[in-house]
Structure formats: C-alpha cells, structure tokens
Amino acid sequence: MKSQIYLCVDLKAMTQDTHFRPQESRTGVLSMQDEDNFIFYEAQPNQERRNPRLWSGKTLNISQKPDGSLSVNFKPIRLDDLSSINLLVAQIHFDLLQAQKDLLP
C-alpha cells in the first residue's frame, strides 16, 4: 500500500454529535473533494450492516450503498446447474423483473 501525505488541507467533519474530544477516534469514511479539501462522514452508531441487502433472488442480490445507490451482485453461478447460457440469461432477467416488482411501488 502506498502512503500519501497531504499538508495544509481543510477537513470538514460530518459527525453524529457536535464535538470531538481529545484522543477520541471515530469510525467513518474520509472523502477527498479536491486537492486541498476533505470531508469525514461519521458512520451511523450501531449500524449492523454496511450495505444492507434489499432483495435476494436465485441469481442475484440487490443491496444499498451508504450513498443511497443500488448495487446488483451476482451469486456464484455454476453453469452445469443450468442446461445452457440462454437459461441463465432468462433467470437473471426474471430475477431483475421480480426485484423491480418487489422494490418499486
């Protein structure tokens, strides 16, 4: 892992409460906005899952990232379980349609 040192930067901390105490550590994400500006987003306290799973199907899962975007993740697929790639594509298509039906009002 390479290390990079940034000197004289502005750091904005988005925390759950108002003050840091000396020697206190917080869990969160440090995001670089540009060369001299960084924002630290504190994680929600007692957050159980980093990317909660919203939907699970036969071939894929849909989870939500901290920024609110959705992530589609494929489950391990064994091609010998399906007789052809066409059936695999059909199952993925079915799962996506079912997720759309279940997740959208």
Features:
105 residues, alpha+beta, elongated, 18% helix, 3-stranded mixed β-sheet, 3-stranded antiparallel β-sheet
Overview of the structural elements:
There is one protein chain. It contains one helix and six strands; from the N terminus they run E-E-E-E-E-E-H. The protein has 105 residues and is of the alpha+beta class. The protein folds into two domains: 33 residues, no CATH class; 51 residues, no CATH class.
Reconstruct the topology from this structure.
Blueprint: E1 10-14, E2 28-34, E3 37-42, E4 53-56, E5 60-64, E6 70-74, H1 85-103
Parallel strand pairs: 1-3
Antiparallel strand pairs: 2-3, 4-5, 5-6
Uncertain residue ranges: none
Strand content: 25-35%
Count of runs of 4 or more consecutive helical residues: 1
| Outline | elongated
Report the span from N to C terminus. Answer: 45 Å
Spatial arrangement of strands, main beta sheet: 1-3-2
Overall structural class, as computed from helix and strand content, comes to alpha+beta
Average residue pLDDT: 80
Classify the helix fraction into a percent range: 10-25%
Q: Give the ordered list of helices and strands.
A: EEEEEEH
Largest sheet: 3 strands, mixed
